[in-house]
């Protein structure tokens, strides 16, 4: 019997119904982001950090000392794995199936996130390019600032529904809309 | 959120992100007498005032930190990574 494996997004049941056009405050859920976990070996922390920054198509996200998430929305997982394998002194694991990436942007994004995380998101304290793990409601997520009014949230797949519902609830007063993005 | 801890890796964070794991005391060597191990495992001074504790940054960098604080006023005097503070005391 032929077995067909279909990819089904964790938020498939949450984002349903009629497609609405995106409001200024918009949450866009990446369909198939490539997310690798990167751990530096002892003594290699700095070199691996620099190599990650220099790697093409890869956005490194800080998790803790000697630990990053390597994110790519443009390259495929083989390409990213190839780039990462060139970094010496690092252990790399594909986490794409276990993580969900959501990008939130718009003029009110900081007011929305202020109701979710206990971290100062003023540009002076959390500048574009900055990223860190933090508590979002009751879920530990990785939050990154990708622009002045743009953030990306990476959550464990099984918590994505709860994080998504929380975000939409907090964004309701700012007319936050949501949709999938990318193939 | 009143209680803020400045993690050396993640920055200032609310205490909800951490899990407090008790006093920082020197671990006896494996050949030490039962009495010393009993004291290490069960007996605590519970002083009022300045105190050193292990805090695990469970929702952030997941590192163990040594928080030097006053348990009466919750004034925080310093936060260091447990590994760094152990290497410093050697």
From TrEMBL, chain B:
InterPro entries: SoxD, SoxD_sf. Its EC number is 1.5.3.1. Keywords: Oxidoreductase. It is an enzyme of class 1 (oxidoreductase). GO terms for molecular function: sarcosine oxidase activity. It comes from the Bacteria. This is Sarcosine oxidase subunit delta.
């Amino acid at each position: 019997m032929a077995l067909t494996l279909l990819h089904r997004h964790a938020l498939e049941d949450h984002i349903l119904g009629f497609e609405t056009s995106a409001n200024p405050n918009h949450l866009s859920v990446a369909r198939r982001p490539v997310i690798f976990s990167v751990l530096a070996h002892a003594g290699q922390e700095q070199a691996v950090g620099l190599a990650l920054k220099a790697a093409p198509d890869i956005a490194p996200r800080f998790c803790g000392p000697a630990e990053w998430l390597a994110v790519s929305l443009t390259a495929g997982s083989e390409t990213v794995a190839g780039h990462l394998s060139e970094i010496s002194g690092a252990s790399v694991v594909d986490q794409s199936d276990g993580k969900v990436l959501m990008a939130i942007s718009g003029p009110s994004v900081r007011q929305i996130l202020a109701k979710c995380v206990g971290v100062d998101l003023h540009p002076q304290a959390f500048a574009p390019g900055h990223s860190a793990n933090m508590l979002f409601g009751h879920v530990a997520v990785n939050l990154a600032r990708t622009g002045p009014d743009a953030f990306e949230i990476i959550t464990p797949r099984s918590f994505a529904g709860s994080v998504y519902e929380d975000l939409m609830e907090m964004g309701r007063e700012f007319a936050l809309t949501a949709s999938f993005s990318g193939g | 959120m009143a209680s803020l801890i400045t993690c050396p890796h993640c920055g200032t964070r609310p205490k909800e992100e951490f899990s407090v794991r008790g006093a920082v005391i020197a671990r006896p060597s494996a050949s030490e007498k039962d009495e010393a191990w009993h004291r290490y495992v069960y007996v605590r001074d519970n002083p009022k005032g300045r105190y050193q504790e292990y805090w695990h940054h469970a929702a952030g960098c997941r590192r163990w930190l040594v928080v030097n604080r006053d348990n009466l006023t919750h004034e925080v005097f310093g936060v260091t990574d447990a590994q760094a503070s152990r290497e410093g005391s050697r």
